[in-house]
C-alpha cells in the first residue's frame, strides 16, 4: 500500500483541498464558514464535499483536525479513524466517494469549548483507492458571526425548539450535493422549528393528539426584528387531514410550495428573516409594510411542508431568497430559559433543539408597538 499527500490550497477565510485531474478534491461549504457561540460552546456548522475524478471508487478511512490559535499554537488534535472494534469513522454514515461522483460529509468536529480561541482548523482526510491511500489536506479559517439584528423569539408562549440546527437536527443534515445542478444553498443551516408545549413538555392535551388540538396550532407569531416585509403569502391551504398531500417534487422549482404561507423580512443590515408554515388567512402584513420587533404578524399553521406538528419554521439568512441564500446564526434577546420551575433571564443568547423558552411580552422581551407604513 502506498501513501500520497495530494495537495493543499489555503485561502483567506476559506479552504479547499485539491488534487490532480484523476484524484480526490475536497471543498468547504459554505465558502465562509462561521462560528456560532452559545453560553457554553462554539459550534462549527459547515460541510465538506469530496469529489472523485478517478475511475475507481474511494473510501474515506480517517478524518483528523488540528486546531490552531492566532500565534500558531496547537489547541487540540481530534480524529475519527478506522481502528478498534467500533471505530469512530463509522459515525460518518456514507464514506464511499463513487468514481466520477461526489460525497457530502458534515463536519464531524462541530462543537468546542467556548474559551478556545480558534484561528485555523487543519483537516486531513485519508482516502483509500485500491491499494493507495491518498491524504488530502484542507485548511479552514472560520469567522465568528454576531447577529446584527436585535431579535426576539418569534412565537408567543412556552416555546419548544422542536428541531433546531444542532448536529443531529434535520435542518443541519441537508445533503448539499443535491443542489449541484442548481443555484440553491443550504438555507436550512441555522433554522428552527418552534412550537408550544405545556408544563409537561407535551404538544397536545392528554388523550387528544390532533393537529387542531395542538398547543402550537394558531399560536401567535411576531416579527423577530424591525424591518420591511419584502414577500408574503397568505392563501396556501393548511395540510389538515383530508387536504391534498404535499408535493415534494415541486419544491426545487417553487419554494413557495415548501414554505406554504410565509413572510420574508428585510432587516436592512444584510440579514433577512423567513417565517414559514403559517396558518391560512392569518398573515396580517403585506409587501412593503414596516414592522417592529414583537409586532403580531401571523399564526402558526401547517401549510406547505408543515408536517403533522404545527410549528413555525424560522431562519435568518444573508439574502432575500429563502432557497438561494445561506443561513446565518441567530441570537435572541430578552427572553427566559425555562428549566423545570426555574425561569432564567437571558439578555442575549442562542437557542437550539430541546430548549424551552419564553419570550412573551412581560417575560423580559421588549416589544415595540405596531407601526405599519404603506
Q: How many angstroms separate the termini?
A: 70 Å
CATH topology of the largest domain: Glucose Permease (Domain IIA)
Query: Largest sheet, if any?
Result: 11 strands, antiparallel
Separate helix tally? 1
Structural class: mainly beta
The overall pLDDT, averaged over residues, is 88
The number of domains:
2
Percentage of residues in DSSP E strands: 35-45%
| CATH superfamily heading of the largest domain | Glucose Permease (Domain IIA)
Helix fraction, binned, reads: under 10%
CATH class of the largest domain: Mainly Beta
CATH architecture type of the largest domain: Distorted Sandwich
Question: What is the strand and helix layout of this fold?
Answer:
Elements: E1 2-5, E2 9-10, E3 15-17, E4 24-29, E5 34-37, E6 41-44, E7 47-52, E8 58-68, E9 74-80, E10 96-97, E11 102-106, E12 111-113, E13 120-129, E14 132-140, E15 143-144, E16 158-163, E17 192-196, E18 220-222, E19 227-233, H1 255-259, E20 261-266, E21 272-278, E22 290-291, E23 296-299, E24 312-317, E25 327-328, E26 332-339, E27 342-349, E28 356-358
Parallel strand pairs: 1-14, 5-15
Antiparallel strand pairs: 2-3, 3-4, 4-7, 5-6, 6-12, 7-11, 8-9, 8-10, 8-13, 13-14, 16-17, 16-28, 17-24, 18-23, 19-20, 19-22, 20-21, 21-24, 24-25, 26-27, 26-28
